[in-house]
Amino acid sequence: MEVKGRDQVTGLPKTIAITSEEVRQALAEPMKLIIEVIKETLEETPAELSADLVDRGIVLAGGGALLRGIPDLIGQETELPVNLAPEPLTCVCMGAGKFLEEIDNIRLHSKNGF
Question: What CATH number has the domain bearing residue 83?
Fold first, then answer.
């Protein structure tokens, strides 16, 4: 695939060809860190939520969820089912919008100790 961007050495725009193996290598370390954070989070998850995760699995959202092999890798590393959100590219934005619609209720509950 050809990608376009700025050459970090010259500062000039440039087009280069990259392979899927180069992309895989570039993502290996960030994915390792993401897996570690997922595992740490799962270790601290209350038992009742852990039971839900075993039954329903993890739901991936955002553009990263669409990277080939990511759901399988996370599933393999966590031994949990992994599913993609119905619209991974827009669900984070939609969730943030729903949160903002309910922000007054959320503030009210947080003031009352909920």
Answer: 3.30.420.40
